[in-house]
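Incident log, entry 3
Record: Enoyl-CoA hydratase/isomerase family protein (273 residues)
Problem: checksum mismatch between cached and fresh output.
Input:
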Amino acid sequence: MAHEHEHEHEFILEIPEFEHLSYEVEEGIALVTLRRPEALNALSQDLLRELAEVAEVIHQDPEVRVVIFTGEGKAFAAGADLKEIAALKDPFMAREYALLGQQVFAEIAALPLPTIAAINGYALGGGLELALACDLRVASREAKLGLPEVGLGLIPGFGGTQRLPRLIGRGRALDLIFTGRHVSAEEALSLGLVNRVGEDALEEAKKLAQKIMKNAPIALALAKESVVRGEGLDLAEALEIEADLFGYASATEDMKEGVRAFLEKRAANFKGE
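Fresh output:
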């Protein structure tokens, strides 16, 4: 009789059918590829909703250790869908539109594991804002990044006016926002806007993901949580959060394995426990 119930609670992840993006997991790396190359992967409302769905899938997928976002073709994402913006009839509709993008990118930013934007070409407007919602950014040498909204009589509305200054400082952020200019991958690297530049953004991102994945999964999640929760707090409060999470990390099996492996001069075998 025991065998009848053996697989009763087996976890089966249901992955929705996506029209505007693809989702695949290989050796712990989830790859999310925006697939609207004919529109330079412009972020339509349908694509934004699919990004929210894929964030939920990633939350539930026990196989995933690191997530990479990239775009098909010559763009990462060249911004919001201008046809949809032109159709916004009043300030209330426009506000709801901005809130949709902000909510989706907040869900991506809140993923409890490392996320990397592999910027393979244009990352403009909403495309750069998606990259800013990721923890790390890797760009190809041909990549162009910018927030050109003021040239359309708008402002960045999916988090750009908030995440960019937090990342690179107020003066540098306002330079990019006021001019709307496109910056090269090399300038983006010097600004601190991207972490790495390589010939192939996706390959470079995968190498970075593999380095990250050598470390303990729970420790990675807690380190991210400590950084994120500490932002905006005074130092004393933030240090308390760090101490709490340090204590939590010390109680994991991975911590014991990490210390043992170090003392035994071998690679650690972390299990996320």
